[in-house]
Amino acid sequence: MDKFAFHFEKLFMLLEKTVSFKFSLLLIFFWGYFLLGSCKNEDCVSVFNNDLLVGFIMADTLKDGKVEFNPIDTVFYTIMAEDNKDSVFYDRNDRRSTFALPVNPAGSSTKFIFQVIDSIRYDTLSLDPLDIDTLYFINPVPHILSVNYVRKERIITEDCGVEIGYFDVEIENSTFPMTTLVDDRLERFNEVNIEILF
Predict the structure, then answer these.
(1) Three-state SS at 143
(2) What are phi and psi of 184, to 5 degrees?
(3) Torsion sign across C-alpha atoms 29, 31, 36, 40
């Protein structure tokens, strides 16, 4: 048995005999937490990230004539950044209403390309076993969404390093019918930054 364990066991036996055993035990746990375990990494957590949250909505006309906008699950053939076409963020297997699109952390603008599926055809190649081929027909003109933003850097602590915040997001160009800026800061707790009527 090592020295530390032996002394800890003796201290524990001594405390067990005292009237305020529970209080002493509580003190030991607090002492151990603050001496050994208070996590310094919590200080390094940043609320910022570089994900532009793009939500797709559709207009619903209610019985009373009012128009309500609701999220709509959408699928694209691919979504990628123009300056990095090798990196596809989403493809035809990703059906959702909100897409997290990473902006360029080294720049002050990013252009995204959305390849739209015009139609899908299913061809049966064989019945036994069942083999179906799926053909996607892509619109030759993709949709474009370009955004500008301001990067601000600050040192959290010497151990944590630098965090980069993305502020003042603005829509430079959009080929979608209606594009609205909802929140101009890129943060982990955002629900959406841009809404697109689709």
Answers:
(1) strand
(2) -95, 15
(3) positive
